[in-house]
Amino acid sequence: MPALADLIPFAIAGIGAGLWLLWRGFGAYRTAGRIEGTSTSRIASIAAGEIRITGTVEPAEVALVSALQSRRCVYYRSRISETRGPGGGSEAFDEERAVGFVVNDGTGAIRVFPRGATFDVPERFDESETWTGTPPSGLELRSGPAYTAARPDREARIAALLTVRDPTAGGGSPARDGSVFGLDNVVAGLDAGRRARRYREALIETGDVVTILGRAVPFGTIDDPAHADLAVTDRLHPMVDAEIAATIAAARADGTLAPDAATAWGNAAIPGFGIGRPAAAPVLDPDADRPALAGAAAAAEAERTFTISPEALVVVASTEVPLLVSAGPPGVATARHEDRFLVGLLGATLAIASAIVLALGVAATLP
């Protein structure tokens, strides 16, 4: 039986772990209270201000391709951890992305801008390599860009169906800029003492039910919609965009910021221009090939997809009202946070017991 003095390091670790669980539990308790304390608004009759809405997710203009399962989604958090030996390991990849999406509750639809949001989404994929190093079933590492069209056209769907993939290639491993490296290169770069890799991924896909707390504001009041429509976090390689934000603020202050997308981006702002089916006539060099304009139906669809009225209400994060996106209806989201609160109480018990052991251990070392 170890002496009490030998338990001092474990007691200190137990106090730290218990206090962290308690802190996390109280945060979950406050979030559960916030969800329960805000009534659900019908989107058709929503008013500006703090709101809670529940509905199914629909894509906006752009969708994501998840890093570990190559699933089309509007949000993912992907993590790859490596085990290098007994008690040793580290995160090899930890990335979280979100793009703007639409929530429909049956009475209407509203756009959500995810910048600054907190996502409460359980993991759907949690698998590890076998002891021989074989990748788990269901792992389909992204082999292309992280962003894709939200509604791919018929030709793109046909091309995807007809694409033949080598089942022995193992896909690719995602990089933080959306590019990929071959799986063989990733494996070769791992430590020789690596024992296994664990893959975890949380997703929000089209058709999923979500509960959202945030602030509804007119679209025209958002300073930088393009910036607000994307959220990217790479926890292993933090992205600092303060310089970009300062440049935009300075340009807005001195009046040099373009008033609209067409002025700033020219032809690139025309829906469909990048895929050869512009919804409006582009300005081109006289010698350039002129693409055929999209038909009336395609142009109308582009207008509905890419144009938001300045008076239309959208959901955003603000300093006064944090934006929370939780998977599931309110009752499910609340129960998930309450479970975390109970774990936090267990953490408090662990911290108290560890503190007693620490005191006894210290007393045992005194003369």
Overall description:
- With 367 residues, the protein is an alpha+beta fold.
- The protein has one domain (4-365).
- It is built from eight helices and 17 strands.
- The protein has helices spanning 8-37, 154-162, 183-188, 225-228, 242-253, 261-265, 296-306, 330-365; strands at 49-59, 62-65, 72-73, 75-85, 88-99, 101-104, 109-112, 118-120, 123-128, 147-149, 172-174, 180-182, 196-204, 209-218, 230-234, 313-316, 324-327.
- The strands form four sheets. The chain has a five-stranded mixed beta barrel.
- A hairpin with a 5-residue loop joins strand 11 (172-174) and strand 12 (180-182).
- Helix 1 runs antiparallel to helix 8.
- The longest helix has 36 residues, at 330-365.
- The radius of gyration is 25 Å and the shape is elongated.
Shape: elongated
E-strand count: 17
Following the backbone from N to C, one meets helices and strands in this order, namely: HEEEEEEEEEEHEEHEEHEHHHEEH
What is the helix tally? 8
Main sheet: strands, sense, barrel: 5 strands, mixed, barrel
Distance between the termini: 21 Å
**Percentage of residues assigned to helices:** 25-40%
> Helix/strand-derived class?
alpha+beta
